Amino acid sequence: MKLFWREVSIVVKDRDVFTLIIIVPVFYAFIYGSLYFNKTEQKVPVMVVDMDRSEFSSEFIKRMNSSQLLNVISVSGDMDAAKKEMLSMKVHGIIYIPHGAEVDLKMKKSINITAYLNTTRFLVSNDINKAVNEVAGSFNDETKKVYLQSLGYNSREAETLIEPVKNDLRAMFNNEETYGDYLIPGLLALILHQTLLIGLSECIAREREFRLVGEIKSMSGGDAFSALTGKTLFYFLLFASYSLFFFTVTFSIFKIRLDGSVPALILITSLLILSAIFMSIFVSSFFKRKFVAMIIIAFTSYPLFFISGYVFPSYALPVSLQYLSKIFATTPYLSAFNRITQLGAGLENIKKELLSLAIITSAMFILAWLRIKYLFKKEV
Asked: Are 148 and 218 found together in one domain?
């Protein structure tokens, strides 16, 4: 307990550590989360090159503009001018309606509506493509229905012939199909993990920078386990509190659903916090300056999020990175975390990840304990 209160005193008095441990987690959670507050792209600006100038093209443009996804900001007959607008990023797509489209449609000929997409932003291009296909599909169905009715079929028969096999697509999870609902929970987990690693690394390197390892040894009676427990307890309680805040208040503000088992979420998050603490103690104890420890931890730990399989599927990674990712707690944690928060999973669904987390946390504990024992021996 002496070491616990000593740690509280260090965090309160050291401005660098205080900023990283106390201010940054909550600040980052709201700042980064607010970037995805709207969760979906809406009214993406597009330009229409209408070479037909017909009743059909006018109706097509009208339906596109009524879509929640698109905002037709300009209609032109000049393709070169439209390309310049796209290159300047004023629009993210060009919809080209060819000359004679209405005439061909009335003659029951097929027409091609071309969508030129700026695919440098994949979410935007997907939204444009989806909206244009929906509008084109509505015209396609209407045209087929009129044609079939002209052959003597009634309205119901014509509708059945247009779509004899109907798709019934139902989103089981992330019902609104938004990027924000998927990304924000992972972002909060990343903030929790990174701020703990970086902030604690400064504390541990500080002990060596100011030659305070002997003080820790004296207060713990030379017992490495007591020293490790005293250093760990404060940060565990603090970041467990942050987790509770994120999963209640922050989830509520950003309207993120939590459909899975709360006990399972508490258990895996506790293991993630412990593994991060032990990892930070072990790695940062090799540095004798706070600044160096912070820089090294910040630049080497952040890529763990990218190889975890959360933002990019693990199976698409190089084989070497797939194996590397398995030795860090973020990989099994984010896999389990994603299923608990979004798929409604319980403890029985995450046994494999739970076992991996327990093994990684235990290994990190042993490494941190052995490292403290070694540093205590050097103080003799």
From this structure: no
Domain assignment of residue 287, yes or no: yes
197-228 pLDDT, tens digit each: 999 999 999 888 888 899 999 999 999 999 99
Mean pLDDT of the chain: 90
pTM above 0.90, yes or no: no
What average pLDDT does the segment 55-79 reach?
A: 92
Both 73 and 199 in a single domain? no
**For the chain, how many structural domains are there in total?**
2
On whether both 262 and 374 belong to a single domain, the answer is yes
Q: Give pLDDT, residue 380.
A: 58
Burial class (CB in 10 A: 0-12, 13-18, 19+), 168: exposed
Q: Return the CA Rg of the chain.
A: 29
Cα(146)–Cα(162) distance, integer angstroms: 11
Q: Are 120 and 114 in contact (CB under 8 A)?
A: no
Q: Is 271 exposed, middle or buried (0-12, 13-18, 19+ CB in 10 A)?
A: buried
Q: In terms of residue numbers, what domain contains 94?
A: 44-162
